[in-house]
Design goal:
The protein is mainly β. The chain is built from one helix and nine strands.
Length: about 170
């Protein structure tokens, strides 16, 4: 019967060396951590079938002319906190919003952010701010780009009473 050799884990310079068992144990610990993280990511509850996640930021935008430049503006954005948003199902040829089915309602947080689940479709957004009624017709989803996040999209409310959806696109 042959016994395994004892390996001195200390090198000639006094440093500690990792034995095969220690390396295997470290590798196993890393592998377990990766598997647990993967299970957490992939094990998340999925949204209900046919439902999409609509989110973004609602802000007031002002276009300020740049001195000495024709048709050039800087935009000043102010997030709108505690703003009630009501979403209605669009009907062909019918304006917003009397008689239309309300499908969702939410209120922006202190940073102007909103977040809700709606099915893909055609909607009206209705809100009031600064003594003006804003009504905005849109088709959802706006984009199939997986890189668009809630902080990179939203709704601009303009001084003239109009509203528009915006998306930030990053070009490398």
């Amino acid at each position: 019967m042959t016994l395994p050799k004892t390996v001195n884990p200390t090198g000639a310079d006094g440093s500690r060396r990792r034995t095969g068992l220690a390396k295997a144990t470290s590798f196993a610990a890393v592998l377990i951590a990766v598997l647990v993280a993967s299970a957490t990511l992939f094990g998340r509850k999925k949204d209900s079938p046919g439902r999409d996640h609509l989110c973004g930021i609602v802000d007031h935008v002002q276009y300020i002319p740049v001195r000495g430049r024709t048709k050039t503006f800087n935009d000043k954005r102010t997030p709108l906190a505690s703003l009630p948003l009501v979403f209605y199902q669009q009907q062909a040829g019918q304006s917003c919003c009397d008689g239309l089915k309300q499908v969702a309602a939410t209120t922006t947080d202190k940073k102007g952010k909103f977040d809700l689940d709606v099915k893909a479709g055609n909607y009206w957004l209705s809100t009031e701010w600064n003594d003006k009624a804003y009504k905005y017709a849109f088709d959802y989803p706006f984009s199939n780009d997986p890189d668009v996040t809630c902080s990179l999209q939203g709704i601009d409310l303009k001084d003239d009473g109009s509203a528009a959806w915006w998306v930030t696109i990053t070009v490398d």
